[in-house]
Amino acid sequence: MNLLHLQALLLAIETGSISAAARQLGKKQSQVSQWISDLEIDLGVSFFDRSGNKTTLSQDGEKLLPYLTHSLGQLDKFVQNAQELAKSEPTILRIGMENYIPDFAFTPALAAVLDIVNLNLEVYREEAGQLEKDLCEGLTDIILTHESDTIHHTRFDYCRLGYYHEELVCSPRHPLAESSSLNLQDLSEHSELVWGDVSHGDENGFSPHYGLFADINILIAMLKLGKGFAFLPREYVSTLVMDKQLVSLNCDFEPVGIKRKVELCWRNGLTLSKKGSKVIDAFKQEHSLI
User: Fold this and answer.
1) What gap in Å lies between CA 117 and CA 105, rounded to an integer?
2) How far is 284 from 261, CA to CA, in rounded Å?
3) Rounded to an integer, what distance in angstroms lies between the CA atom of residue 32 and that of residue 15?
4) How far apart are the first and last CA of the chain?
5) In angstroms, how far apart are the furthest CA atoms of the chain?
6) Ramachandran region of residue 287, left (φ > 0), alpha (ψ -120 to 50) or beta?
7) Where in the chain is the domain with CATH 3.40.190.290?
């Protein structure tokens, strides 16, 4: 069974057209069509229902598509891992951390990585979508992001590390501080101060009224002045709560605070090198998440 024929089949399914798959492969449509026909004969199934000039994925094709996608994905990993084994040990690793994941969560891990002999680090901050794009395009080696909705990543290796708590806080002078327990309606009547990227806006907040701050120090200053409420990492506000500059609020929908889960992702084959394996182990063992 020819690998290129399988790749052509997957391309035809993804593009919805054998001619489009042929163009991407730089082959003639008749040649790609023959490859797919040969596969159907060899395997005894029809991947497409053909009616005139119209070609649609058959029921058998729909059932086999997940296996085809998985198999070719595993083959890509095999090739990437083999290429990594052929290389020497890395001397530079690039690590991307999602904006607004607290520094304290990974300070011990980064300190451990810096102890690895003859390994240089480049650490940067970026939005989650760009970080994943960087990883898939080979522009970075490791990324740390808030856990996505993806059940299983197929383009890189990953593991779930844990979570940190975000606590609901405001000034003791703010009207919300007078309530023993809050609901969503209570929050919607006041301004939410959000730590985030000003270029993305706040589409999923708890209030239609908000202030968006890229700098957490400015946000906390506004909190102290009683200008709103905020969900912030517990470690960033615990001292302020103890000093009574801020108060911790109870809410019926998140009684123990919001859990922000974090995952570690790395390029295929990284752990086949000794240094790469040490770095991933450091993040798994030395983080400060729960």
Assistant:
1) 23
2) 14
3) 13
4) 48
5) 77
6) beta
7) 164-259
CB 9 within 8 A of CB 36: yes
Q: Tally Cβ neighbours within 10 Å of residue 166.
A: 20
Residue 50 falls in which region: left (phi positive, over 0), alpha (psi -120 to 50) or beta: beta
One-letter identity of residue 172: P
pLDDT one-digit tens code per residue, 149-168: 777 788 889 999 999 988 99
Contacting residues for 18 by C-beta, under 8 A, at least 6 apart: 12, 29, 32, 33, 36, 55
Return contacts of 27-30, CB within 8 angstroms, 24+ apart: none
Q: What is the DSSP letter of 249?
A: -
Cα four-point dihedral sign 202, 204, 208, 214:
negative
- Asked whether the predicted pLDDT for residue 181 surpasses 90, the reply is no
Instruction: Report the alpha-carbon distance of residue 38 to residue 5 in Å, rounded.
Output: 9
Domain 164-259: assigned CATH number: 3.40.190.290
Beta-ladder partners of 275: none
Q: In a 3-state reduction of DSSP, which class is residue 32?
A: helix
Instruction: Please calculate the CA angle 90-76-80 and round it to the nearest 5 degrees.
Output: 15
C-alpha dihedral sign at 100, 135, 87, 281: positive
* Ranges for all domains in the chain classified under CATH 3.40.190.10: 92-162+261-286
pLDDT (tens digit per residue) in 209-268: 999 998 999 999 999 999 999 999 998 999 999 999 999 998 887 655 688 899 999 998
3-86 maps to CATH 3.40.50.720: no
Q: Is the pLDDT of residue 126 over 60?
A: yes
What fold does the segment set 92-162+261-286 form as a domain?
A: D-Maltodextrin-Binding Protein; domain 2 (3.40.190)
Look up residue 111 and give its amino acid.
A
For CA atoms 139, 141, 146, 148, give the dihedral sign. positive
